[in-house]
Amino acid sequence: MKKIILSLLAFLCISTFATLRAQGVSETVDGKVKLLMERFVDNNKSKSTVTGWRIQIMATTDRQRMEAALRRFENLYPSIPADWLHAKPYYKVRAGAFATKRDALRTLYILKQDYPGAYPVQDSQIRPEELLR
Q1: Strand order of the sheet with strand 82-87?
Q2: C-alpha of 58 from chain center
Q3: What is the spatial distance between Cα 48 and Cα 41, in angstroms, rounded to a whole number?
């Protein structure tokens, strides 16, 4: 049903645009808007990280406990990359890198068997090549 509605909406948009184009209606972009769009594009090209989601396995103040948890996770799930970060006073073990929360929740469902306290967290320091499919 959604596909039919989206197809109909796309058809209406295309036909409306074609009609306006045939009638000689054109669009002009203000110089300030064009400059703003160029800045937006340049700013995004210069960023080396994106915002996405990870799954936080644990947070502790004990570094040895964090390292043990990280080794255990890597043994249980070798296909899911995991790392830790230190946000004083906590050491946090985080796994995966997902573009959307929905993707993270799919993996979280599996991880909950071994890590019932795990939860998704947003992370703005994800390199695009890290994103899991």
Answers
A1: 82-87, 90-98, 50-60, 119-126
A2: 20
A3: 13
d(CA 84, CA 58): 10
Cα–Cα–Cα angle for 50, 76, 123, rounded to 5 degrees: 15
| Shared domain check, 125 and 85 | yes
Contact 103, 54 (CB under 8 A): no
* Domains in the chain, number: 2
- Report the alpha-carbon distance of residue 112 to residue 67 in Å, rounded: 20
Domain C-terminal end among 46, 64, 79:
46
42 Cβ neighbours under 8 A, 6+ residues apart: none
Both 18 and 79 in a single domain?
no
Please give the pLDDT value at position 55: 97
Q: pLDDT tens digits for 98-110?
A: 999 999 999 999 9
Query: Could you give the 3-state DSSP secondary structure of residue 119?
Result: strand
Q: pLDDT tens digits for 10-41?
A: 556 566 666 656 566 556 767 888 888 888 88
* Domain membership of residue 113 as a residue range: 50-130
